[in-house]
Amino acid sequence: KDLNAYDNLEYIGAFYGLSGKLLKERINEALEVTGLSDRKKDKVKKYSGGMQRRLNLAAAIMHKPRVLIMDEPTAFLDVSGRFEIIHLLKKMAESGKTIIFSTHDFNIALNQSDKVWLLLENGLIEGAPEDLIMNGSIGKLFDKTQYKFNPADGSFEIISDEKFKIYLEGNSPL
């Protein structure tokens, strides 16, 4: 994190066997694709979490792989950071790259993926998200006594007979 983005990519590019003019071209292309060109000389430790994830993505695409496999690329990001990463991944997929990633974000899995693999204790469920919703596979995965899955919009609802009260105190106007 003491290096700037450009220097990080230069270092990583060497592991891919890139050098000289080709390395510089690939670094600049990766920075452009991930929207980091204007911040390439900034120290990575000053980057937000979303910017660091985009730099990780830049490093992963420098050697132009046909398949990208990632573990939780949106973990610990705020909503806008998650959607920036998903938008970049969707653009890459639309250009012909195969994108495979793990996530705990069911919303992203169901709404942004072409195919979903759900790993279970007793096996695997896989298919297009809309097919898994329509055939009831998604709804069967969850304990219906605590929450339920709404197949119409892909949302979850907590089931509770208890009503909660929230009290606000203070002198500040809301």
Describe the structure.
Helices cover 41% and strands 16% of the residues. With 174 residues, the protein is an alpha+beta fold. It has a two-stranded parallel ribbon. The chain has a two-stranded antiparallel ribbon with strand order 3-4. The chain has a two-stranded antiparallel ribbon with strand order 5-6. Strand 3 (116-120) and strand 4 (123-127) form a beta hairpin. The longest helix has 16 residues, at 79-94.
Q: What is this entry, summarized?
A:
This protein is 41% helix and 16% strand.
Protein topology:
Elements (H helix, E strand, L loop, with lengths): L4 H11 L4 H14 L15 H13 L5 E5 L7 H16 L3 E5 L3 H7 L3 E5 L2 E5 L1 H6 L2 H4 L6 E4 L4 E4 L16
Parallel strand pairs: 1-2
Antiparallel strand pairs: 3-4, 5-6
Strand order of the largest sheet: 1-2
Return the string of H and E elements: HHHEHEHEEHHEE
How far is the N terminus from the C terminus? 40 Å
Radius of gyration: 21 Å
Main β-sheet description: 2 strands, parallel
Broad structural category: alpha+beta
Number of strands: 6
Mean pLDDT: 88
**Shape label:** flat
How many DSSP helices? 7
Percentage of β-strand residues = 15-25%
Approximately how much helix is present in the residues?
A: 40-55%
